[in-house]
Design a protein that fits this description.
Strands 17-20-21-15-14-23-24 form a 7-stranded mixed β-sheet, sandwiched between helices. With 508 residues, it is an alpha/beta fold.
């Protein structure tokens, strides 16, 4: 990989005072800030600033995790949280949302440094997370069961909504604050207690979220955070009988493993896994808007996004015009220093991951795809940066068309008809997201309805609101997050049959 510099690359500023934060975090267990029993820690080097340690957190052992599980178990079995009214839980959760906004800049800087994402993007994400908490808080007091009063004059049916119990939540490194905010408030809003295990790469902001929840008055043991590696920390959450449910966001490989472990004890599992999102552009699309959206869809978070629009399916006849616009954007879009306000694309998460992304690019070239732009490491001595990369002439059987690359790499193909576009969109083991670009709403909606993906857009991409559910088809996962549907993930439903008067005798 060549460490060259491009004109649209913003070199990291090693003198930025924000690099001197070097935050030292502790886990939060049963309302107390604690170290790992071993005293071992994990240092996080900023992926966007070579050599800069920006955070340190404990390396939890299996026993450390079990202590957190025990705290969540006690808080659920004997604590006040599951027995509070929805209104009481709601008031405390609104306070968390307010505190997130009060600490927006602090959290954004930490998120930018740990993940390598642009500071402007991180700032927007923290604001969105406050909205997620607010929505969940509002809905927490509106959760309800059902009554059935038409099953006979002497009978009444009730359906009670109850919390599922103690929940283990495992989150990835790409959007640590967002994904925790898509899970935790829905779980605790339903009356559950939580043990959150964030990625070992990006744990700081998750710890701060739990600390803010404690400050807001969330009772001890309701929201615990343990930090460390997936093995053993994440695995214990799937194995321990004290955990009633495990919710995981990440790779298919790890999700499958956790699902298998949880199945041994018939533990409920929620999984949001990989994706290979298609972006379908019809000939009647607004090409300027489509080109801008496609670029955003594949380059957002340096392509390290499970709902990335990494497959471009463009209708024959407009291919050249669209690619001209897209390549122009790709040559000009600023990438580099995450702390620079002008940066649109930040750093990659790790050296190993950069190497993996580049191996896909090499495989694409070797299989005969046309590399139109990029395909190289940039500013190697400064940080982990990869140039915006565009492939044309991609065939459906190529690895760059089938497998999740998780980098700023676009694989483009052409189609003739809507049927062909839908078939290409569905020709993957994933089904997490999809986007259609067309000024013909009927055509767009008919295509979307046939695409097997849980999160879809018409004339936009990577857009979201707390009201709408997200989740996967096929190998992209199980269950749904957000909206009213997200609360069902963390709820049990109990049917109660009430008989009035003396029932007809069975004997005599």
């Amino acid at each position: 990989m060549i460490g060259k510099v491009l004109s649209n690359f913003i070199a990291p500023d090693s003198s930025d005072p924000r690099l001197n934060i070097k935050s030292r975090y502790q886990m939060l267990v049963d309302g107390k800030s604690v170290e790992a029993a071993s005293g071992r820690t994990i240092d996080r080097v900023s992926p966007g600033h070579a050599g800069a340690v920006v955070g340190t957190w404990p390396e939890a052992s299996a026993d450390d995790v079990r202590l957190a599980i025990a705290a969540a178990r006690r808080a659920f079995d004997t604590g006040p949280w599951p027995r509070m009214s929805g209104a009481e839980r709601s008031r405390l959760m609104f306070k968390v949302a307010d505190l997130i906004l009060q600490h927006q800049e602090e959290l954004a800087i930490a998120e930018s440094l740990e993940v390598g994402k642009p500071i402007a993007q991180a700032r927007g994400e923290i604001g969105f997370c406050a909205d997620l908490w607010s929505y969940a808080a509002g809905q927490a007091r509106a959760l309800e069961g059902q009554s059935h009063n038409n099953i006979g004059d002497d009978r009444l049916g009730l359906v009670l909504r109850e919390p599922v119990g103690a929940v283990g939540i495992i989150t990835p490194w790409n959007f640590p604050f967002i994904i925790a905010s898509e899970r935790v408030p829905w779980a605790i809003g339903a009356g559950c207690t939580v043990v959150l295990k964030p990625s070992e790469f990006t744990s700081g902001t998750s710890i701060r979220m739990a600390e803010l929840a404690r400050e807001a008055g969330i009772p001890d043991g309701v929201f615990n955070v343990v930090t460390g590696y997936g093995d053993p920390a994440g695995q214990v959450l799937a194995e321990d009988p004290g955990v009633d449910m495990v919710a995981f966001t990440g790779s298919v490989r790890v999700g499958t493993k956790l699902g298998e472990i949880a199945a041994r004890s018939v533990k409920r599992v929620g999984l949001e896994l990989g994706g290979k999102g298609p972006q379908i552009v019809f000939a009647d699309a607004d090409l300027e808007a489509a080109a801008d959206g496609i670029a955003y869809g594949v380059y957002h978070n340096a392509g390290q996004c499970c709902i990335s629009g990494s497959r471009l399916l463009v209708q024959e006849g407009i291919r050249d015009a669209l690619m001209e616009r897209l390549l122009d954007i790709s040559r000009k879009v600023t990438f580099g220093d995450p702390l620079n306000e002008r940066t649109r694309i930040g750093a990659m998460i790790s050296e190993v991951h950069v190497t993996k992304v580049h191996s896909y690019v090499e495989a694409g070239i070797a299989s005969g795809a046309e590399l139109m732009l990029g395909g190289e490491r940039v500013g190697k001595d400064a940080g982990l940066y990869y140039a915006p990369t565009v492939f044309a002439g991609v065939k459906p059987d190529m690895s760059i068309a089938r497998e999740e690359i998780f980098g700023p790499v676009l694989s483009s193909m052409t189609f003739k008809t809507a049927d062909e576009a839908v078939a290409l969109a569905n020709a993957t083991e994933f089904g997490l997201s999809a986007s259609v670009w067309s000024t013909n709403l009927e055509n767009a909606m008919q295509s979307i309805r046939r695409i097997r993906a849980g999160r879809c857009w018409v004339n936009s991409v990577i857009d979201g609101t707390p009201e709408l559910p997200i989740g996967g088809y096929k190998k992209s996962g199980l269950g749904r997050e957000l909206g009213r549907y997200g609360f069902d993930e963390y709820s049990q439903f109990k049917g109660i049959h009430v008989t009035f008067g003396r029932p007809a005798p069975w004997f005599g």
